[in-house]
Amino acid sequence: MKLYNTLTKQVEEFIPHEEGVVRLYTCGPTVYHFAHIGNLRTYIFEDILEKGLKYLGYQVKRVMNITDVGHLTSDSDTGEDKMLKGAEREGKTVYEIAQFYTNAFFEDCRKLNIRKPDIVEPASHHIDTYIEMISKMLEDGYAYLSNGNVYFDVSKAKNYYQLSGKNPEDLMVGVRDTVEEDKSKKNPADFVLWFTDSKFKNQDMRWDSPWGVGYPGWHIECSGISGKYLGEYLDIHCGGIDNIFPHHTNEIAQSEAYFGHKWCNYWVHGEHLNDQTGKMSKSNGEFLTLSLLEQKGYDPLSYRYFCLGSHYRNQLVFSYEALDQAENAYQKLKNRIRKLDRTPDLHEEKIDVYQEKMKEAISNDLNTSSMLTLVYDVLKDETLTDFTKLYLIENFDQVLSLNLIEEEIEVDQNLEKYILEKIEERNLAKKDKNYALADAIREELLKKGIRLVDSREGTTYEML
Ligand code: AMP
Ligand code: ZN
Fold it and tell me: What's the confidence (pLDDT) of residue 409?
């Protein structure tokens, strides 16, 4: 498996800490509003990564947080609290907002066939873990108290700028541009681990801590939840590119300070989906949600197909014309598959070659467009029986998750299984000379439109 690693800025062979096992952490949504389809692009890419790794035979242990506390309107420590803003906007409590938008997020995921990670943890459930980590960082001199807040001292971190490729001067410019410079920090890039003295006095989510009543900064939640469930060695950490700085940069600083060694080897980031005006936003212009696309008549899986058509490391520009094209291609593809003959006739010797190609596409830094091309190649291959095509497409769909094989075939497969079981039951009845039961089974199937045909070779069936 080859993956582009933001840490080293190159495509690398992926080697997990434990053979055959991948410990994967993906940052979850900030649940103050609906996810926009840009956010969902990132979750689609992470879903493909998880399923691709499984296809290659890895056992994947994946954890995701839900950000329900600490994320301010800027990704650093300035601006308003996003959750509080959501609560004020809707006249609800922060807890109600968090619950509502967490449910809405997973509903979007369900529609897009994004598998829910095995472990999903709200940030607000792990306050003790953050307090323990922050206490240790204070003891070890990585953190300091100033004006009531606890800050991480970035001058103590090794390679603080490696992930982002930034340098301290870049940051100075950034800080000077920020209106609300925090005078309590030793270095401009220092970030808050725990807020007590803050302008958000009416913060609903507050907890007691050794430093006073307050709440955690945004970054500590991912270090805390990841460490708690995946241990001190992480294999892959994902997010959208905007997470590289400061969020992931700060996660590395804290986790490595706390654990005392390198923490995560591979950092994999998805490029953004932009609208035609540029950055996708939840406040300006049309707020592009999955529900909006549905209201306009699109199948959510057309959006998934649209995303899979381009590589996760390329920017993608959303337009309705582009989505129309994707929807068209996707529906045509499903129609072609629908027409395949489902008579069981599997040519096993043809399967391996194609499955190897699928593995190559996955291993090539998650080449989703090659994965899609492979589906078309299978359909075009005249040496394959229709049933073999169906088999392969269903197999690829474990990763693509585009519902390429519709329910019918499952029903068909179940039906086939049911008929074969009935034939077996009837054979046993005949063997026991229980002809009444054998005839009853024949009648029962006939009523369902299935005729049994006995011959010297055994019993087969035909659909009426
Ligand atoms: P948030 O809910 O703001 O914490 O973001 C959820 C995820 O969406 C994060 O992994 C972000 O990096 C990602 N993200 C934010 N904006 C975009 C975008 N326009 N395109 C793709 N991913 C995005
Ligand atoms: Zn995170």
Answer: 45
Concatenate the DSSP letters of all residues of 269-313 into one string.
EEPPEEBTTBS--SSSSS---HHHHHHTT--HHHHHHHHHTS-TT
- Out of 270, 295, 330, pick the residue that ends a domain: 270
Query: Would residue 383 count as lying in a domain?
Result: yes
Please state the domain count of the chain.
3
Q: Which atom of ligand 1 is nearest to the CA of 241?
A: 12
Measured in angstroms, how far is the CA atom of residue 247 from the centroid of ligand 2? Answer: 6
Exposure string over 285-318, b if 16+ CB within 10 A, otherwise e: eeebbbeebeeeebbbbbbbbbbbbbbbbeebeb
Q: Minimum-distance ligand to the CA of 63? A: 2
In a domain? residue 218 = yes
Nearest-CA residue for atom 11 of ligand 1: 240
Instruction: Classify residue 364 by its DSSP letter.
Output: B
**Prediction pTM value:** 0.87
Q: State the distance from the centre of ligand 1 to the C-alpha of 75, rounded, in angstroms.
A: 12
Q: How far is CA 74 from the centre of its chain?
A: 23
**Residue numbers of the domain that contains 432:** 413-463
Same domain? For 423 and 395 the reply is no
pLDDT digits (tens, 9 = 90+) for 346-403: 888 989 999 999 999 999 999 999 999 999 999 999 999 999 999 999 999 999 999 9
3-class DSSP state for residue 425?
helix
Average pLDDT over residues 221-226: 98
Ligand 1 lined by 28 (C-beta under 6 Å): no
Boundary (domain end) residue, out of 400, 421, 453: 400
Three-state SS for 458? strand
Q: Is residue 408 part of a domain?
A: no
Is residue 200 predicted with pLDDT exceeding 70? Answer: no
Beta strands in 161-288 (DSSP E): 191-195, 215-216, 234-240, 264-270, 273-274
Our answer on whether the CB atom of 219 is closer than 6 Å to any ligand 1 atom is: no
Please indicate, yes or no, whether residues 19 and 150 belong to a single structural domain of this protein: yes
Q: Is the pLDDT of residue 56 over 90?
A: yes
407 lies in some domain? no
